[in-house]
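Re: your question about EAL domain-containing protein

S., sorry for the slow reply, the queue was backed up all week. Below is exactly what I fed in.
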Amino acid sequence: MLRFWGQPKFSREPLEPIGYELFLREYNTGNWEIPTDFSKFTATQITDLLTRTTPEFPQKMKHISINLDIDQFVDPVFLQAFFAIKQQLSGIQLSIELTERTGQLNISPSQLVTAAKRFNDAGFYIILDDVSSGDNQLARVKLLNDFVHEYKFAIQNFRPFESLEDIVPNLTFWRDLAQKNQKLFTIEGVESKQDLLILSHYQADMFQGYALGRPIYLPTQDDPDSVISESTTCY
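Result:
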């Protein structure tokens, strides 16, 4: 069985939940697990699950993002599948997060640009996930800049560190680049009230992290109990 789990995305001002980042989870031997191979799921499986899950969302959770690895991102089948259900996601803004993970295929820069342009032209927001990590380095940001709407900076990728001050130069660089390029900027990995107090000075548009809300099970319309817990922590 396949379901989405969702981590709340919080706006900065006011600090309140506005949507979810969706994560696929697979039910095996009594436990929900992170799949070891995301490539085994077809575009149809993912979009079908999406259409059965979003109607159960609380009214205020309208900003939804879903992760695609680079192999999926450049595959026209995924774009076609998402576009086919776009009108069914009433009132939902669906963003595509291009992950930092290295794909199994040798993807050329021109293939990546073509895919980004197609998603953008089809009306999807594109987010570069975990900038400064994995493959989402400055070169990719520059390559896709015309089609990207948001940068996400993941603090958790730089832990452990003595204090947040250790990553301030990197954080400041990406915040400034987002402002220069007129992109939204999200900081994820907020794990404490102290983190939030410090990070609030960096003018992010959105926050994510365990201090604000952990990923929760998102039922579908056909689940026996289709009530989503709205319990989140808000400082």
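Helices lie at 43-53, 70-73, 76-85, 109-121, 138-144, 168-180, 193-199. Residues 2-218 form a domain with the TIM Barrel fold (CATH 3.20.20.450).

Happy to talk it through on Thursday.
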